[in-house]
Amino acid sequence: MIVELKNTNAPELDVFARLTEAQLKNKRNPAQGIFIAESPKVIGYALNKGCEPLALLMERKHMEGDAKELIARCGDIPLYTGEREVLADLTGYELTRGVLCAMRRPVLPAAEEVCHHAKRVAILEGIVDPTNVGAIFRSAAALGMDAVLLTPTCCDPLNRRAARVSMGTVFQVPWTRIGEKPADWPGVGMEQLKNWGFSTAALALDDRSVSVEDKALMAEEKLAVILGTEGHGLMQETIERADYTVKIPMYHGVDSLNVAAASAVAFWQLRRK
Predict the structure, then answer these.
(1) Phi-psi region of 197 (alpha: psi -120 to 50; beta: other; left: phi over 0)
(2) Fewest CB atoms within 10 A around its CB: which of 78, 147, 164, 273?
(3) How far apart are CA 159 and CA 24, in angstroms?
(4) What is the pTM of this model?
(5) Rounded CA gap, 79 and 95, in Å?
(6) Could you write out the DSSP letters of every residue in 133-162?
């Protein structure tokens, strides 16, 4: 059903422009939660994962262009369209790839289920920047991580920007939350990882830090690599509970990397050979 946009104030367009991330997630009724996928590539990966499309928003030129196949895959859902200037007025930003899709949020699996066959998992502790979360997912997919677990205070990987920066890998790498409330991490969460057979490696500058190239670390059968929030890094309790504290050797007086860059180095070095 194609709807030519004339009035961008229509309430059915709220999902694309006027609802906050919290409103989209609908914590009171998670089964009715929504996320926004941006770009044909990301939307395609989401459809491959089985996510249910609810409505499309795109520039008119994409209807017979790179979104034509997506439109066919989405079936008879509302398709809102207009010129770039009209859509920018609605969303408040220029659409990077000209196509948005409102989709039903998938039900997250249990952390134990995600970790059941995994040998290498990434733990994101309180990382709040969606660009960093998206970049970490892309590195996790490319560099051999079997799963990603997020602590309760971590940014939502289905955030529009996070999913786009990930190039759709948030729909390829298994992920879920470890713990439902902030108090569940690190104590409960790290105890669960131990019970599931994982050794834990906290990326942090600490007196007991070993190199990411440490042979004992690299030889671990099951390893959880823990990455901390921007600026402050990992909580001290997390560092103290970890089996290893790990650093990346650096030069020219540089003492740290952006968390997304550090994740790529660690994932590559600690992947299963």
Answers:
(1) left
(2) 273
(3) 10
(4) 0.91
(5) 16
(6) HHHHHHHHHHTT--EEEE-TTSPPTTSHHH
